[in-house]
Amino acid sequence: MTQVFKFGGASIQDAAAIRRLGKLLARFPARPLIVVVSAMGKTTNALEALLAEARNGKTADYHDRLETLRRDHLSTVETLFGAKAGPVAERVEALVNELDQLHRQHASRDRPFHYDQTVGFGELLSTTIVSAWLHEAGMATAWRDARELVVTDDCHQAANIDWETTAKRVRGLAADDGRIRVTQGFIGSTSEGVMTTLGREGSDFSAAILAHCLEAEEVTIWKDVPGLFNADPRRFDNAVQLERISYDEAVELAWHGAKVIHPKTLGPLQQKSIPLTVRSFEDLEAPPSTIGRDTRFDTQTPSLVLRDEQTLLEIRPRDFAFMDEPRQHDILGRLVEAGLHANLIDAGAMRLSLCLDGHPERLEPLITSLCTDYAVVRHEDLTLLTIRHADDALLAALSSGRDSLAERGNADTAQRLFPSTQCQGTWHIPG
Q: Aspartate/glutamate/uridylate kinase domain: from which residue to which, for each copy (predicted)?
């Protein structure tokens, strides 16, 4: 059965990391194996900055950034291959030169289109280097261009998959000829061959697309942590690993802001009952976390999510009328038009409260619009606590000493909104 491995930027950030990747893959001889690779390290951020320079006409800054990109990748090639670096370095040079030409060609086009023609070069560069290194390390590999595999529409920066055509194109990846297929995450192309990108968490999504089309046995996402946790270990001193959760539970956690797997990645896997495993590339012996159909473990451990920089809007009709369905429909419609998502919604007879991420460029026009028809009270600098599967004692302990500005709850999820000044420092989950 086909296996799909996905490696993010941290796992291939430099020559030492790519060598470690080679040693890791050598421990998994089973084939067919498809390896989906992100851009190296912070390359996508660097490419986005390069895009900005290309569009604002700052030629000197643009060339400085382009040369830094070229130099960093060539340095990795030279460290890996030494005297044999020539052929790989030539391919890297060719890709950087092509990127430069595309920036010149598309700088006057709409930003989403320009973005998609250029930012995906991070994955093309990384897979060129990784594939060559695996070959050098004695593993038979085949480099495949994801733009020839993943077919999408032309919704740039958030392309939608043409599943039927994509399935036809990726079938050959499962050929059991002993070679590892190395391909790119994040990118695809239209049926006309115009490059597209898949949006947030695009590389994880790429792995899920291929696994879905090939009905793979499993997808493994390799990270610098051993798995998924019930809370952010940077905020909670006693967070514990969730070794098994269901697709539904993972989606709930992601919806509430947990840094788990994005729902668009889980959807294609859930449809084919393909488990997703998160493992540590730094410690292969560490127990992984697995997301699958089994729901038995979802309620065993409460999960907690903190979202900072929240804004609470308390919205009331000016005429002392009910906050009825037509008014709620009007307000939520404006929220959709602003491109915002409510992390908490709480309604009363004459009030609708919305907790929103603090995006000033989107939030301010929304508030201006609402103030024309409603009385709006605004509270800023807040932190939203969401707890899955909490009992009353846990909720009370975590709320103690904090002033709740808004609350929501159901059988599975409780939410409390506190001033951020009361949420600083390390949290502890009462046992």
A: 1-279
Q: CA-to-CA distance for 390 and 429, rounded, in angstroms?
A: 11
Q: Please state the pTM of the whole predicted model.
A: 0.92
Distances (CA, A) of 12 to 24, 43, 119, 146, 182: 12, 11, 18, 18, 13
**Three-point CA angle 24, 27, 31, nearest 5°:** 110
The string of pLDDT tens digits covering residues 106-120 is 999 999 999 999 999
Asked if 243 contacts 288 with a C-beta cutoff of 8 angstroms, the reply is: yes
Q: How far apart are CA 259 and CA 221, in angstroms?
A: 14
Q: DSSP labels for 346-376?
A: EEETTEEEEEEE--HHHHHHHHHHHHTTEEE
Cα separation, 293 vs 245, in Å, equals 8
Choose one of 169, 193, 223: the last residue of a domain: 223
Give the domain extent around 322. Answer: 303-422
Q: Is the pLDDT of residue 431 over 90?
A: no
pLDDT of 200 over the 80 cut: no
- Between CA 152 and CA 155 the distance in angstroms is 8
Q: CATH no. for residue 218? A: 3.40.1160.10
Contacts of 188 by beta carbon, 8 Å cutoff, 6+ apart: 146, 147, 149, 150, 151, 152, 159, 161, 166, 195, 196, 197, 198, 206
Instruction: Answer whether 77's CB lies under 8 Å from 88's CB.
Output: yes
Q: What is the pLDDT of residues 281-307, one digit of tens each?
A: 999 999 999 999 999 999 999 999 999
- The residues, ordered by sequence, that sit 6+ positions from 337 with a Cβ below 8 Å of its Cβ are none
Give strand ranges (E) for 167-217: 180-184, 187-190, 195-197
**Which value, in Å, is the radius of gyration of the alpha carbons in the chain?**
24
Q: DSSP letters of 310-331?
A: EEEEEEEETTS----HHHHHHH
CA distances 261 to 33, 156, 223, Å, are 21, 22, 12
Q: How far is CA 209 from the centre of its chain?
A: 14
Q: Count the Cβ atoms, other than its own, within 10 Å of residue 340.
A: 18
One domain, residues 82 and 173: yes
